[in-house]
Amino acid sequence: EELGFVFTCHWRFAYAPDLTLYPAYEQDGNYQAYRLPLKGWTECGAPIYDPKEAKRIYKEKSNSFIGGTWADAKGNLLLNFSPLTMLSPQGQTLWTYPNKWPNVHGSHTAPKDDRGLVIGPLKVIGSADLGKDTGEIFCLNGNMGKAFMFTTDGLYIGGLFKDCRSAPDVVPADANSGLSIMNTSCG
Length: 187
Description:
Distance between the termini: 45 Å
Helix content: under 10%
Number of helices: 1
Strand content: 35-45%
Largest sheet: 4 strands, antiparallel
Strand order of the largest sheet: 8-9-10-11
Order of helices and strands: EEEEEEEEEEEHEEEEEE
Number of strands: 17
Structural class: mainly beta
Radius of gyration: 18 Å
């Protein structure tokens, strides 16, 4: 039976804390994202989904390869392409951030790292709720060893580590109290 969407992903599905799935893919030059809510639970505790309940929340001409998606605690969906784009659960664009060199291949043609540049972001590697004044933040790992931190409302917080093209040191094998990692790259 025709589902109306492709049940695939690049690295993984984005999913919200309530286990809503966000299948997203590129087809015929268009990038599409769907929202598929959790329907219930089986007797043994497995989640139940009805693919017929998937609703398309986004469809646009794609201008770059989509490396990954991620959903925040509110069910907003981050699309990792140019530009980084955060969508509401209904598909409205909440914010964008310049991302001229997305993913692995984009990072290969990127200029020297500079403050505020996002180079080769791959996927969200973690998030945390910092309370009512700041809210949720997330961290994207970059293909060149730098990680990029944002608030979920689109503020670029800063980078962690150095771009491997300019950092002289690699992450040390043994962590010691007081060890400086100012000139360190993760990759």
